[in-house]
Amino acid sequence: VIKTPAFEHGSHEMVSVPLDDEVVHGDAPSADKTQAQARITSITLAHFDFIWRCLRRLGVQQPGVDDAAQEVFEVATRKLDRIEPGRERAFLFKTAMLVAQKARRLAFRAKERDGGDPDLLPQSSRDPEALSLAMERRQLLDRALEGLNDELRTVFVLFELEGLRTREIADLLDVPMGTIASRLRRAREAFHDRAEELRKEQRRVP
Amino acid sequence: MSNEPKRWLEDGANGFERELLASAEVDRASPRALSRTLASVQIAAAATLVATTTTAATGASASLGAVSVLKWLGIGVVSGLATMLTVESVSSHAPKERTQNALEAAAPSADRPSTKRAVLPRTTTLQPAETRAIRGPRPVSVTGPAPEAPGTPPPAGSSAEAARDLAREAALISQAARNVESGNATQALGLLDQYAREHPRGVMRPEAAVVRVRALVRAGRTSEAKDLAGQAGAEPAHARAMQRALEESSARK
């Protein structure tokens, strides 16, 4: 049985995750198996939601976010012995940035090849009548964030949307805190300009 | 006194900007996405461990031969099955693999992986029964059409519950696969029936379908195995695994 914390769901209690034979026969798992699987399970449970949200907010469009998140954790699994304890989130986030870049490139190529925008909304929202204001705003947020370059977008997302402190962001990205503050200021300016453009565009739409 | 800036949502953003920022609240991973990733990484972790052990001991790569080592370590046939499927996937998805290798080369603390990967096929498609599962997994896509099936909301529950469900799924399929290998096909089919009842939307339905084909072959119910393997839409790796089981059956005759 793996004891692992459930950080992302409002509880820090340890939960038990039975594995494989334990469920059927109550067999004791091997030590190596338990060690590797316990660590990656714990990492995944602790950081999956954060990484999933970051991928989405770094520009990976639905329905590709699930696959992108899985890719991040698969990379982490293969490099598990290289991830320094305590630096798991930094490793995952840097990997997520690379995965997001790749996903955006593929989406851009697909858009050029096929024309038009990819379908960004869940199937259930395709009916125009069913489109909620929240989903419309979410699409506008995507467009506003597209106006920021990668450096600015990353800091903006981590600070404004994920609620990380500047010290945490500096640690995550391995850059000085002054640089984070500067990027945040420029990111806000860029976001403000882009949001203004979108707001004017909205007003023109009948 | 802290130099920490205030969040825009608290102070600074105008009304429209606040609306945009607040709209990010809808960004939530589904329990299903977490379950699938947990399944993938646990299998990959086990397979990596076995591959490392095998390489150290014999110099052999982790491939079909690793299955017996998997058993020896108590990791289970499901992991071996996943390895086999991955070997198939690697050969049939070379362009994706090249992209993956490029990603790994750029990843932090990057070392080239020394082993074959055991990766659960990715899917976001929901389907109700195991027999339909072989149609389920779809290739990785970041721009394709929305895959959600109408009327099939993601299961509720915490990540801990998702992990427990996943462990139960893996255990049942693993046990069924072991029964197939030891010649107890009837018991294997019973376990697979139990899996289908208890996990009608399980994330490992494609793997369960492969094990069922092997069990049916071992039970001499070849025509049922062929029917199941012949269902359209199986992921190439799963289809080949089922086809191999059928061919092994023919070879034994």
Protein traits:
heterodimer, A: 206 residues, mainly alpha, two-stranded antiparallel ribbon, 2 strands, 4% strand, B: 253 residues, elongated
Detailed description of the structure:
The complex is a heterodimer of chains A (206) and B (253). Chain A is mainly alpha-helical and 206 residues long. Helices cover 65% and strands 4% of the residues of chain A. Chain A has 8 helices and 2 strands, in the order E-E-H-H-H-H-H-H-H-H. Chain A has helices spanning 21-24, 31-57, 65-78, 88-114, 133-146, 150-161, 166-173, 177-204; strands at residues 2-5, 14-17. Chain A has a two-stranded antiparallel ribbon. In chain A, a hairpin with an 8-residue loop joins strand 1 and strand 2 (14-17). Chain B has 253 residues and is an all-alpha fold. Chain B is 60% helix and 0% strand. Chain B is built from 11 helices and no strands. Chain B has helices spanning 15-22, 31-58, 66-72, 77-92, 94-106, 130-133, 159-181, 185-198, 205-218, 222-229, 236-252. Chain B is elongated and about 75 Å long. Chain B starts with 14 loop residues before the first helix and ends with a helix. Chains A and B meet through strand 2, helix 1, helix 2, helix 3 and helix 4 of A and helix 1, helix 2, helix 5 and helix 7 of B.
What are the segments of chain B in which pLDDT stays under 50 over at least 5 consecutive residues? 53-103, 109-157
Q: How much helix is in the residues of chain A?
A: 55-70%
Q: Mean of residue pLDDT of chain B?
A: 62
Helix/strand order of chain A: EEHHHHHHHH
| Number of E-state strands of chain B | 0
Describe the sheet with the most strands of chain A: 2 strands, antiparallel
Low-confidence stretches of chain A: 1-29, 116-125
Strand content of chain A: under 5%
Q: How big is the Rg of chain A?
A: 20 Å
Looking at the structure, what is the overall shape of chain A?
globular
Main sheet record of chain B: none
The spatial strand order of the largest sheet of chain A comes to 1-2
Number of helices of chain B: 11
Number of helices of chain A: 8
* Helix content range of chain B: 55-70%
Q: What is the average per-residue confidence, as pLDDT of chain A, rounded to a whole number?
A: 78
| Overall radius of gyration of chain B | 21 Å
User: What sequence of helices (H) and strands (E) makes up the elements of chain B?
Assistant: HHHHHHHHHHH
